[in-house]
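Known limitations

Files may contain more than one protein. Parsers should not assume a single record per file. Below, a two-record file is shown to illustrate correct handling: read the sequence, read the token line, then continue until end of file.
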Amino acid sequence: MNLPESKELQGVIKQCIKGDKKAQHELFKYCYSFALSISSRYCSDSEEAKEVLSDGLLKVFSHLHRYSPDLSFGGWVRRIMVNTAIDHYRKNKRYHESQLDVSHVKDIAANEETISMLQSEDILKLVQKLPPAYRMVFTLFAVEEYTHKEIAEKLGITEGTSKSNLSKARLKLQKDLNSITDSLDKPYGKHR
């Protein structure tokens, strides 16, 4: 999902900077779904995602005067939302230190049929079930396309930890996909 850019949007942004409440409401509605989709990737549930969303949109509006019309507004909002999610993770990191044992998970390719049956909401739910450290690294790497070096710098971890968390996240997702495949192959669960 991307935010469409237009001259009208630039006008709304200028009005927001001047303090126009109607324009601010319009920009809020314009950004809401896009920003929520980003924050949801980094959070375990909708309440946490809305907390990150609120913090992120507050930053968007507080720093709107720093936005340059030469830049993509959607890209600018995305960067703020990702950084807000990272800040939220770091702030709450000490509460999320549980690690998941995935050493027993077989490293096999997920059933392509299972993956094709999943909707994006189903995949998001699987990612949201990951422990916070794994979810953060997985999303930064797989969705935002950060390098392990960039992830390590942003999260204050080593590159090795970033690589390890990504590997464990993939194994956990593989395990969950295998469970879905197994349940589909059982009698009465088969959808063929």
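...continuing to the second record:
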Amino acid sequence: MLSRHSLFWKLALLLVVFCLLMIALSWQWGRHMEIRNAYLSPKARATLEDYAREAETPCAAAGRPAWMRG
């Protein structure tokens, strides 16, 4: 039987803390990157809009919306 302060429980607790720390850090980093990338320069925004127009052109010629391609 495992005692209350055995090595197994110490390692199990360490693993749980490590996993929670990784989840928190990845969530925080994801929020940071989302906020950082939310504000695009006008040039970058125009470039993305041009890419979107280019992607819509073949679908519009086929008579269907861009989201239905495939």
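Parsers that stop after the first record will miss the second one. For reference, the second record is described as follows. Helices lie at 7-38, 42-62.
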